[in-house]
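Hi all, long-time lurker, first post. I run a small reading group and we've been trying to get comfortable going from sequence to structure in the token notation. Rather than ask abstract questions, I figured I'd post a concrete chain and ask someone more experienced to write out its structure so we can walk through it together at our next meeting. Sequence below, copied exactly:
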Amino acid sequence: MNYFIFILLTGFVLFFVWRLFSPQFITLSNFALIKINEVIGKPVIKEFLFNGTVQANPTHQQKINIGSHKHSIYVIDTVTHKINFTLSDNKREYSLKQYCLTQNLNLNIQKYKIQIEGYNSFLGFSAQQNQHLSNHVSAQQNINLDLNTLNSCELIYYNLPRL
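-- Answer (accepted) --
Happy to help. Here is the structure in token form:
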């Protein structure tokens, strides 16, 4: 009996593989892609209000613990300021990852509108490509903000020398 079920299932698999590569099914797969695009959403350009708050780091130049209880790592905190960025549309506010500054700079973070290309779907908005925040933040001393100066706190703390 088990051998008969195995042969029957193998026949169904071979039939569906044959239908997958037949020309009639290609048009059906294009139709399925259209339906998937309707679920995922069509490309749109959405406007967000970009805002950020800068806070001085209270643990600057102190020994801090990173990690869990079992896998703790000690480093000297070189971050001077921590920055919280938010994007908001007319429906809700999205908090981004916390960013850190490794130099003592005065940043110009103003509320302004930013346009992001992405997709709307029942899951929410999804951006089409990543954007680095240094493109939207400028320093008063006209210093270029690169990844060594302004980056996510996780990456900066991960790359600090261990004690």
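A couple of things your group might point at:
The first strand starts at residue 43 and ends at 56.
The first helix runs from residue 2 to 20.
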